[in-house]
Amino acid sequence: MSMSTAIRSITYATAARERRRFRVVVIGAGQAGLAVARQLLVANVDVIVLEREARIGEPWRRRWDTLRVFTPAECVGLPGLSFPGDKDAFPTKDEMATYLERYAREMHIPVRFNMKVDSLERTARGYVVAAGDEQLEADHVVVTTGPYQRPRTPPWARDLDRSIVQIQSSDYRNPAQLPDGDILVVGAGNTGAELALEAAGAGHKVFLSGRDVGHIPRVLWVSNGRLFWFLATHVFTTGSPIGRRIGTSIRIGHSGPIVRIRKEDLARADIARVARVTGTRNGRPHLEDGRALDVKTVLWCTGFTMDFSWIHLPIFTPDGYPMHERGRVPAAPGLYFVGLPLQRSLSSSTLVGVGRDATLVADWISQS
């Protein structure tokens, strides 16, 4: 190696390890991260947003083709920009992705793409965020990666016969993925109910397994759900007994109540509600009532677990949930979360409530 080559190599290695310092680093450019960044920019706070994808809105684009949000467009806009079009319409997943891209552009939010964060640590000078060869220092860090990070699948799934096709809800796009034959949908929450109806509509015999999570009463779903979302934001909160009960249920992995679909809808589609699946028998799904189902496909709608293993700080409960107060972490001053389930209310992890929580966190930072 020549001397000039060696010098270039040393210079490159030094640059790769060079740390840039920011007042605030936001991790994640979904709706929560963009809302926080916008509110910080309004307060003239230096901020950078790190996004692991190559484009804003990719998690929305990867959802199943017919997905629509549960909330009318009037209620899903982020701070500073209303959602376009019919205020009573329920936006599609692609419309949501397009809106988020527009939001980032019109709010002039600085986003670094293809930045998968590998670790977050705290030093005497603040926080260090490592992403590949880059390290960023920050006085404040806001984690907005959300609760839907790693699909939850029971250990016995590996014991199913190899002829049975297994599809995670996060990998499902449309019925063309489903082979001919009967289907077992595991998980009877909102996603499970919607995908069971879609599969039944495509001509499959569908079995739906999972506990009855209940449904939103029709009286609360007036005006396209506006009453329910008002209650979810202002009544079902961490400060109310009912809100805390809901939070405990969510923490142990239970789905929230079904929003749009009724039991009668499932019955009309000839979807068979079956007992909980407890394991396998001869490679087939085995139900709690002793039956084994002969199906060709298992569609997993069993939810997700949070994965914050990259955060190297003692701020988590034994089940991996961050210990925080309305998004602020007392044990780690300068660290915040936005978009957690029941962070302040039932709507905190939804488009309805994330802007409200983002505004609170941005206010704390700008005043510090």
CATH architecture of the largest domain: 3-Layer(bba) Sandwich
Radius of gyration over C-alpha positions, nearest whole angstrom: 23 Å
Strand content: 15-25%
Number of strands: 16
What proportion of the residues is helical, as a percent range? 25-40%
CATH topology of the largest domain: FAD/NAD(P)-binding domain
Shape: globular
Overall structural class, as computed from helix and strand content, comes to alpha/beta
Give the mean pLDDT. Answer: 90
Spans of at least 5 consecutive residues whose pLDDT stays below 50 are 1-16
Number of domains: 2
Biggest sheet record: 7 strands, mixed
Keywords:
368 residues, 7-stranded mixed sheet, FAD/NAD(P)-binding domain, disordered N terminus, alpha/beta, 2 domains, 26% helix, 5-stranded parallel sheet
Describe this entry's structure for a reader.
- By secondary structure, the chain is an alpha/beta fold.
- The protein folds into 2 domains: 9-149 and 306-367, FAD/NAD(P)-binding domain, CATH 3.50.50.60; 152-215 and 257-303, FAD/NAD(P)-binding domain.
- The chain has helices spanning 3-17, 31-42, 58-61, 93-106, 190-201, 226-234, 241-251, 263-268, 354-367, and strands at 19-27, 47-50, 111-112, 119-123, 126-131, 134-143, 150-151, 165-168, 183-186, 206-209, 272-274, 277-281, 284-287, 297-300, 304-305, 335-337.
- A hairpin with a 2-residue loop joins strand 4 and strand 5 (126-131).
- Helix 2 (31-42) packs parallel to helix 9.
- The longest helix is centred in the N-terminal third of the chain and has 15 residues, at 3-17.
